[in-house]
Design brief:
The chain is α/β, with parallel strands linked by helices. The protein has six helices and six strands. The model has no long low-confidence stretch (mean pLDDT 94).
Amino acid sequence: MSVIHLVRHGEVDNPDRVLYGRLPNFGLTERGHEMARRVGEHFATADKAPVELVCSPLERAQQTIAPLQERLDLPVFTDDRVIEAANSFQGQQVNSRRLAAPKNLMRLYNPFTPSWGEPYKQIVLRMSAAMASLRAKLEAHGPEAEGVIVTHQLPIWMTRLSAEGRSLFHDPRRRECDLASVTTFTFDSSTLVSVSYESICPDLQPDQAVAGA
């Protein structure tokens, strides 16, 4: 058995509430740093601590994994395959008025792909490849080794929907993926055995949905 935990980054400092996507210089808020500290504590005090750490190249993810790296004294492998999904609305405030603008309506013609961003299937493929690479490393550590990937909401949710055999087309408001939450995949060799979810910072979640997470 091997276990891979997909961890969503903590709260991002985004006062203008833009969809920040892959833009640089979007780091954590003070509350986001507290979330990151709790992520570190969660795994460092677990019955079985992770032996491999992987992270998205984006600043918010790197800051989220930093306390765990310090607690476990392990290197972090930065993997571009677990980056946030590409989105043509990146850098904009996304609301009903803006979406109704003619230039934006043209991007919304196909919600199933979706037409405004990276195809859902492509996200699943790159995330699956990153997880397969990590799984190979974990198997070298011996049975029941665990690893952590700090990544982003949409890549985590796409991976979970695909693993559970559900449609990738979904309502973004219904994603079960809190900030700093943990979605866990357990494998027997290359066979997925189970998927579980845990929100480890329920008391720190913002009152409003987070843009561009």
